[in-house]
Design brief:
Blueprint lengths: L27 H4 L1 H12 L4 E5 L8 E6 L4 E6 L5 E5 L13 E3 L3 E2 L6 E2 L5 E3 L20 E5 L2 E5 L7 H5 L2 H4 L8 E11 L3 H7 L6 H4 L8 E5 L5 E7 L30 E6 L3 E5 L4 E10 L2 E11 H4 L4 H32 L12 H14 L10
Antiparallel strand pairs: 1-10, 2-3, 2-5, 3-4, 6-7, 7-8, 9-10, 11-17, 12-13, 13-14, 14-15, 15-16, 16-17
Helix pairs in contact: 5-9
Bound molecules: FE2/S2 (inorganic) cluster and fe (ii) ion.
């Protein structure tokens, strides 16, 4: 079987049905390079990408890099304290300038030593004396759109489209009691995963798998979707009799619950999906984020950050107690990554197959339909039966 037009809306009719009647996305959505190219064009070029937190780059010259599709970006604090974003490419002949995160007084290109200030201005370009009409003022690093909410930094490769505030909709008001602006990211780790970005996101949007994949670790969790406005979805996750889900065992001595959150939130953990591929998790005692960086149709980088409020970080027992949180993330994440790789493998084998959704997969269905809304924009619509 081969397809003439991978973007014929009729092919996705079964996914568009209400959850209890809907089929899952066909396997090719996770395996076909042409499908991935369409996602890059229709989603990743125009969406907001989460990079990291402002508190990770407190001083002039501190930087983070974003490595994803459709390119690499430097996010750096300037001499005046402002944070800017630039394409991670030298204005001479395009060499990548920085990797990972760190701090530097100036950005020096590793090829011919052009030197940029922390605000992206080109300061020196040695050996360019004979170039006619060459003025360093015209060769600053190319800016990339940057926006933030409560210290969370996002970049976008296009100038057009909804603002970050419009994209996030009611998320800031939903989480205002968690003091998100006071969070500090105390650790980030990354994983290379041989799976399509959607498998990683879907995994984080349902608790149906927890009793199987995390049988020996997290155990079975319960969940219910929360109504949202904007380009995000939200799952309330809970386990009867347990307060925090951020440590494997509460006996290990969890850190205190945020005193400002309403009582009914103290036994719930909210898993979100900021479309397309960022997850912010707000727990009663901690916050963590997952950022999926698609690399190709079957390869992704997953970055995981751990955040706590300043009050908690300054406790004498923080260093000791935070180890239990790291253990939880370092245990559950590889379990999820391994199952996503198994799913990727199966989808190559059965690339035309479609399954069915269970009742706990509301947000997996929602992500599939959000993705289809984006990639089928402009295609003739198929009336639903
Ligand atoms: S490519 Fe950067 S200085 Fe030549
Ligand atoms: Fe999981």
């Amino acid at each position: 079987m081969s397809l003439d037009n991978l973007f014929d809306p009729k092919l996705y009719r079964e996914v568009r049905k209400p959850l209890s009647a809907a089929s899952t996305l066909p396997g090719w959505c996770y395996t076909d390079p042409a499908f991935f190219a369409r996602e890059v064009d229709k989603i990743f070029r125009g969406c907001w990408h989460f990079v990291g937190r402002e508190d990770e780059i407190p001083e002039c010259g501190d930087y983070l890099t974003f490595d994803g599709i459709p390119g690499s970006v430097i996010v750096m604090r300037s001499q005046s304290g402002e944070i800017n974003a630039f394409q991670n490419a030298c204005r001479h002949r395009g060499t990548r300038l920085l990797s990972g995160s760190g701090s530097c007084r100036q950005v020096v290109c590793p090829y011919h030593s052009w030197v940029y200030a922390c605000d992206g201005a080109l300061l020196r370009a040695p050996g360019m004396d004979c170039a006619i009409d060459f003025d360093v003022k015209n060769y600053s690093l190319s800016p990339v759109t940057l926006s933030s909410w409560a210290g969370f930094l996002f970049v976008r490769f296009s100038d057009d489209g909804p603002s970050l505030q419009e994209w996030l909709g009611n998320m800031p008001s939903f989480f205002k009691d968690y003091e998100p602006a006071d969070l500090k990211c105390v650790r980030r780790v990354s994983f290379d995963v041989g799976a399509n970005w959607k498998f990683l996101m879907e995994n984080a949007l349902e608790t149906y798998h927890t009793g199987t994949v995390h049988r020996e670790t997290l155990g079975r969790q319960q969940s219910e979707p929360v109504a949202t406005e904007g380009h995000w979805s939200c799952l309330r996750v809970f386990v009867a009799g347990k307060q925090t889900l951020s440590v494997l065992s509460e006996q290990e001595g969890a850190l205190p619950v945020n005193p400002y959150i309403p009582r009914e939130r103290t036994t719930s953990t909210y898993f979100t999906n900021i479309y397309p591929c960022t997850q912010f998790v707000f727990a009663p005692d901690s916050m963590w984020w997952l950022a999926v960086r698609p690399q190709s149709v079957n390869q992704s980088r997953l970055e995981v950050g751990s955040c706590f409020t300043e009050d908690v970080i300054s406790r004498d027992d923080f260093e000791e107690k935070v180890q239990a949180y790291f253990e939880r993330w370092d245990t559950a994440t590889p379990e999820d990554n391994a199952i996503c790789e198994a799913q990727q493998s199966g989808s190559h084998t059965a690339s035309f197959a479609q399954g069915r959704f269970g009742q706990e997969e509301v947000l997996v269905h929602a992500l599939a339909n959000w993705m289809l809304d984006q990639i089928l924009k402009g295609e003739p619509q198929v009336p639903q039966e």
